Amino acid sequence: MSNKEYRPTLAQLRTFVTIAECKHFGTAATKLSISQPSLSQALVALETGLGVQLIERSTRKVIVTAAGEKLLPFAKATLDAAESFLSHAQGANGSLTGPLTVGIIPTAAPYILPSMLAIVDKEYPDLEPHIVEDQTKHLLSLLRDGAIDVAVMALPSEAPGMKEIPLYNEDFIVVTAQDHPFAGRQDLELSELDSLDLLLLDDGHCLHDQIIDLCRRADINPISSTTAVTRASSLTTVMQLVVAGLGSTLIPISAVPWECTRPGLATANFNPDVTANRRIGLVYRSSSSRAEEFEQFATILQRAFKDAINHAESTGIQLKQNAESIHS
């Protein structure tokens, strides 16, 4: 029987949520930086106070009970609300202060982070950004679990329970070896990608999927290429493969200053009438009450992207520049 006077603590709710997510007491204790006995005591106190079994324990596995599954979303919402309360208490009217954990995809992180962090350091000294670089599906999982506050990724995220702030559209540029027939061209058509041995990032990277989708628009299947089996986990590695003559690739223009200035590489642009780009946005939980802060943070990201584009233009590499900020 539940105690009607009982009120769970945030620590107890966090214990329940973490155990439910990890499905393992030892892993949950490590994640919360507490001992396993303390973890168990907190869960027992919560279950006793509520008069409900939330977690079924056995020697082999941890199971969230039916009652636990029903109550889990409310526990997460309570923790989100508490975090939002603290965030708002640290600043006035939703100003950007305190901790902010930002997830970001690997094909954007190296190129906009330097500017973003410089802006934060200069103009938002009370903001404490924490950066998590990972693939889209992992970032969405971290968002759902409350491990990160926002994620910078390609849109649409198509994730339930999330809201999106579109930030900018970014063109793709073709990168080839310097002696390739496409080198320096400014009038490529999508259909001409069929003549390239395209080098792709590993599955799971959104850029991999974006290139595949672009090719499908022209009825091209790059996976059928013999060299498409050659994949890498970073754009830097892909560039080295291009230099070695193993194929060509497509990259977002914000990556140009860091990836295209090495010897042995050349670039080519699509015809101005060809749409070959990606949309990047900020994604956050619809249950979060920090939307006003995230809108502010979105403007910082836009400025960082513009800085990256200005840097790209300063390299002297000719760009098809249709990139635009779309957040208002």
UniProtKB/TrEMBL annotation:
<dbReference type="GO" id="GO:0003700">
    <property type="term" value="F:DNA-binding transcription factor activity"/>
</dbReference>
<dbReference type="GO" id="GO:0032993">
    <property type="term" value="C:protein-DNA complex"/>
</dbReference>
<feature type="domain" description="HTH lysR-type">
    <location>
        <begin position="8"/>
        <end position="65"/>
    </location>
</feature>
<keyword id="KW-0238">DNA-binding</keyword>
<dbReference type="InterPro" id="IPR005119">
    <property type="entry name" value="LysR_subst-bd"/>
</dbReference>
<dbReference type="InterPro" id="IPR036388">
    <property type="entry name" value="WH-like_DNA-bd_sf"/>
</dbReference>
<keyword id="KW-0805">Transcription regulation</keyword>
<keyword id="KW-0010">Activator</keyword>
<dbReference type="GO" id="GO:0003677">
    <property type="term" value="F:DNA binding"/>
</dbReference>
<dbReference type="InterPro" id="IPR036390">
    <property type="entry name" value="WH_DNA-bd_sf"/>
</dbReference>
<dbReference type="Pfam" id="PF03466">
    <property type="entry name" value="LysR_substrate"/>
</dbReference>
<protein>
    <recommendedName>
        <fullName>Probable hydrogen peroxide-inducible genes activator</fullName>
    </recommendedName>
</protein>
<dbReference type="InterPro" id="IPR000847">
    <property type="entry name" value="LysR_HTH_N"/>
</dbReference>
<keyword id="KW-0804">Transcription</keyword>
<dbReference type="Pfam" id="PF00126">
    <property type="entry name" value="HTH_1"/>
</dbReference>
<comment type="similarity">
    <text>Belongs to the LysR transcriptional regulatory family.</text>
</comment>
